[in-house]
Design a protein that fits this description.
Length: 185
């Protein structure tokens, strides 16, 4: 009798979850990439913010020169990675240089709160966290800050606002030698 072939992903707990878009190859460290992780159900925000960040905020020569100077520690490109589960976000913290985390509460309300809890339990410093919400999340703002969010945008935040937050994080990271200070974001 032949043994069934089991993929690597099936042997790792949580890797076979159909709600997860986590790639097994992302477990291999790639410290040359600097990323913002976006917790969302559909890759709308990650692509919109990436486009805005690249064209409007990094596209001008004055800003490009400043950002490259701030990222002179070997980082020349910033990527935006869309993930659908908080456990995937936490797993990526150990495999790439994460500049910041963006959670879209209207898409992943419960998992966004779970993410803050998971980050609080880590024994290492975590990057700044931006929570995006709508009017129904207004009452959660104090709770989000208390749980560890460094910034909260409520009531129709746009990709421009989020890209500006990302730019501020990049600038702080460059000033602090690769360590962002979430208190300043």
């Amino acid at each position: 009798m032949e043994r069934p072939v089991v993929s690597r992903a099936a042997r790792i707990p949580g890797m076979t979850d159909p709600d997860s878009n986590f790639d097994i190859d992302s477990l291999l460290p790639d410290w040359s990439r600097s990323v913002f992780l976006v917790l969302e159900r559909n890759p709308h925000w990650s692509s919109a913010v990436a486009a805005e960040f690249r064209t409007r905020l990094v596209g001008t020569s004055a800003v490009r020169g400043a950002d490259h100077e701030l990222l002179a520690g070997g980082v020349t490109e910033v990527d935006f990675v869309s993930l659908t589960a908080s456990r995937d976000v936490v797993a990526r913290l150990g495999t790439t240089t994460v500049l910041g985390i963006i959670a879209v509460l209207s898409d992943v309300e419960r998992d966004g709160l779970v993410l803050l809890g998971r980050l609080a339990r880590l024994s290492r410093a975590v990057p700044p966290v931006l929570m995006l919400g709508d009017a129904r999340h207004r009452e959660l703002v104090p709770v989000l800050y208390e749980a560890g969010a460094s910034s909260v945008l409520i009531d129709q935040p746009t990709d421009i606002h989020v890209a500006e937050w990302c730019r501020n994080v990049v600038q702080l990271t460059g000033r602090n030698g690769g360590r962002g200070n979430e208190q300043d974001v």
